[in-house]
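Sharing a chain and its predicted structure for anyone who wants a worked example. Both blocks are below, sequence first, tokens second.
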Amino acid sequence: MTHTAPATDLWLRRYHTAPDATHRLVCLPHAGGSASYFFGVAGSLAPTVDVLAAQYPGRQDRRTEPCVATITELADLLAAQVARVADKPLSLFGHSMGAVLAFEIATRLEADGVRPHSIIVSGRRAPGTVRDERVHLRDDDGLVAEIRSLSGTDAKVMQDEELLRMVLPAIRSDYRAVETYRGEPGRTVSAPIHALVGERDPKATVDEVRRWEEHTTGPFALKVFPGGHFYLDRHVPEVLGLIRAALGAA
């Protein structure tokens, strides 16, 4: 029996209550990211959308837990949690590594007879598109240089050496999981896919993101924004508008 996840749920966090919401949105953070990245999104979409943000093991209040080693295992664990909250129209939004997880979770839900309303993938190339990336093999300084270049980590964290060293294991684990992930080129879901990308994203070209169309038998839409990998931080109103439109579409 499905039920509404409480705000203190280990895996899915609710920052703003929306008991009368007509739609539920599960947000999945980027590599090294945490549920709190979506605090503002939750507030902006409430009360018409009930937003739940995934909290991966190994960060914030779960920092003492071991990180999950592979995308496959993490998707298995998250899909079981997401299935519990599928008692109303459910969509998935994932940025970067979260986009891969959104797709993998959707395939598991559909295999169990639960079809997501829509899947919104951001800043990530299609599952069938492979790059030989080995950031997770760099030393700590190399890993820090990578995340600084993407400008996706809280500035306070980047300036606090002790705090930075504390979060590096989770970031490295996430990079290892996503860089060793190999999606099946012909694997599809029936849910619509909405793909978003920054035009200067070093991690995903527009052509690589356009190939998400190959992974749905339903409708597909692509939106290109000015900016790089974390374009969405500079285009919050536009991204929120796109999310609202995707959730409102039949």
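Comments welcome. Residues 1-8 have pLDDT under 50 and may be disordered.
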